[in-house]
Amino acid sequence: MQDALLQSLIESFDSYIHRESDVKLIEEAYFLAKKQHEGQMRRSGEPYITHPVAVAKILSELGAGPATLIAALLHDTVEDTNLSLKDVETQFGSDIASLVDGVTKINKLSFQDGAASTQADNHQKMLIAMAKDIRVVLIKIADRLHNIRTLASMPEDKQYKIAKETLEIYAPLAHRLGIFRIKAELEDKSLKYTDTAMYYRVSNLIQTKKEERESSIEKIILDIRGLFKTNDLSDFEIKGRIKNIYSIYKKMVNDHRVFEDIYDLLAVRIIVDRIETCYQALGLIHANFTPIPRRFKDYIAVPKPNMYQSLHTTVLSGDGTLFEVQIRTKEMDAVAENGIAAHWAYKENKTYSK
Ligand code: MN
Hints:
Radius of gyration: 22 Å
Number of helices: 16
Bound molecules: manganese (II) ion
Order of helices and strands: HHHHHHHHHHHHEHHEHEEEEH
Shape: globular
């Protein structure tokens, strides 16, 4: 029988999960979740099973292992259907049962909204402490990401509440775990509901400035390429970097800065294959562009607590524009994008264990 949803799920992980018994178990979890949620609908009108499948796919983009994907597929069954934790344990073992249990327990927490940021901070800590297993927190973040993506179908008062809670708890949590791609999406999609006017204002401003910016970045990238080439530095990748809507919004609101000051700062990222090459690239940049004092940070020698590593500097280009440069290895870049998930994913996939 043709099952397009199952097909799309399999495609999301078949580049890295190969063991037949693992694939079979994931399929079993899919069919069980589908059966359990039979007749339930999302507010969008779609069958409920589309939600756990979407959550599992978000996690497969982070390279999550089979146990995490299975738990993601089953994450709402114990709370919302007649399936018991014991059933999950019998069919899938205690590791997966404890992941599902962890997610269910977190769902039962209710977050009172209060202005106090310390409260949000406490909630974050509580989530991490309760989870014991970091995979539970990752499933919860993926669950929230899908709910934010589909927030348009919720009633208005709920939209605001969920978006605010996401900004206070889940985005900082994603930041703490270093999953920056997801953090940025959680923030931007939430801002659309917590401050709709500003969301559109900032995104329109970004749109208008886009072309101008893109040509400046292209020029800088060309200059750097030329510089590296004449100095025999090969095997590197350069890309322009764009700030997300929420980070610009926050600077405008909290630091009372104008859009131009924040957005005119161009940024490029240089990715090389070895640590020594990072410093070599930095040396060439500093020797050929004027570095701005106190803007140089060595997070390779001294990584951030969330394991982020990179060299940061800000320099002045030939025509007088300021631009930020980040230099790091491929591996550091993977960790910077997907944070702790990158480490954890590599681990689970290598050993197929917790
Ligand atoms: Mn859910």
